Amino acid sequence: MSQSLDRALTLLDALAEGPRTLDQLAEHAHVHKTTVLRLLRTLEAHRFVQRDDARHYRLGTALFDLANRALDDRDVRRAAEPALRELNELTGHTVHLASYEGGEVVYIDKYESRHHVRMYSRVGKRAALHCTAVAKVLVAAFPEPRRREVAGSIEYTRLTANTITTAEAYLAELAAVAERGYAVDDSEHEDFIHCVGAPVRGQRGEVLAAVSVSVPKILLDYDGLLALVPDLLRAADKASVACGWTPDR
Amino acid sequence: MSQSLDRALTLLDALAEGPRTLDQLAEHAHVHKTTVLRLLRTLEAHRFVQRDDARHYRLGTALFDLANRALDDRDVRRAAEPALRELNELTGHTVHLASYEGGEVVYIDKYESRHHVRMYSRVGKRAALHCTAVAKVLVAAFPEPRRREVAGSIEYTRLTANTITTAEAYLAELAAVAERGYAVDDSEHEDFIHCVGAPVRGQRGEVLAAVSVSVPKILLDYDGLLALVPDLLRAADKASVACGWTPDR
DNA sequence: AGACCAATTGCGCGTGACGCAACGGTTGGT
DNA sequence: ACCAACCGTTGCGTCACGCGCAATTGGTCT
Lengths: 249, 249
Fold this sequence. Notes:
Number of domains of chain A: 2
Structural class of chain A: alpha+beta
Largest interface: A-B, 52 and 52 residues
Oligomer: homodimer
CATH architecture of the largest domain in chain A: 2-Layer Sandwich
């Protein structure tokens, strides 16, 4: 492990919260500000950070560039785009695309709701494994032993009255999701929002990603949400076809 | 300047091109592969890179997270969103939001075209200063001496028959843009695409960002493009209002 | 004008990052 | 089935490089 690099990455983390001064950064990372200055200079040379004014540093444009280039590489994202956009236009609600990457579920694309009440989320954000529709879909795609492994590693933080808080309940839910072909988040993550999610499959039928529609409860009750499932599945299948999947068989 | 950090950032740059192996990275950065390994391990611990398979590394999810968190902070982006989305739905064409950051023009948001023929671009990408509508808008907002400075520093790479290739012509164009209140890219960047751009203003009338609409020539001829200007200006003004700008006065 | 605060520079010390060489696991070829 | 070639990984000795201290500059508020 490289010490200076490690420190520099910690700085970037701190800067993600918003612009910071040299001193703030030094304190946060527990290093001398001289060191911070040197690291920032290097980061600045690579456009990873930029100076806001004389004393504030903020994240630089190289980050946007890198991140979006990397996102562009994820083929699912590009292939699924038309189907998801259509679903977004059809329903008017927030549509997410998420994938499982190295032990976590990450949003890789997002289509905003047309309504004013919206879910807060962000591309790049990690989705909680136990209380989001996308995560349930992705984990339900794993073989039984792997599901258990994941279920065992989760911290079942209660976020609402409906949040699943035990591994047993989670595993049962996953089985139901796999059976049904779609997942529901019945206000398990946030009180005022519920979601439905479905898998996007690749050539060999493997699950590449998950699509979800998130709706504020004031706009649509539970039955109304479930009524969106056919549209959701249609969109997910369309995205799957774009990823090389062939129906039936 | 920190050597190890510098090298690590170079690695990230290389990885932006797509997944790479240890050896490829070592060669690219002109360092021993042991060194690369150590740096990658640190980067991996911070989720800046992730292993694809046994031998390939790719950019990790922390990057998406950081970048989108930082983008979220840019108030213009959030404030301008409804107006731009509306413009995108109204015209059906690609809408970009760009801002001037430390000597370069960067796309900070994008709304995809409904059509199949599209412009290739990406959030985080840098826009050429001499042949894009957004850059012209942003540079035209500078006072005369600063415009000269920028004009002098540009490499006027010819990309199409219409590309502006001299500082004099560029300065004249900027004057016209400032006068008119909008900019045109008459296939100066790519043969088959032309754009119009306009400024988004803040509280004190200062230019915060630039909006543009990009259209393939086969879908709309030059007159058709210019016919979009009123809609563009309306959207830009609406975005400006959302940023605290007050019309007239 | 003076005092204060934060960013910046110079410098000498010591650590941690470096490249080498040897190892080991996997792949592909005969 | 064996071997060869390749690539990732490990241990280690060396010295460059990154470290923190203390002093300086620059900028702002009273």
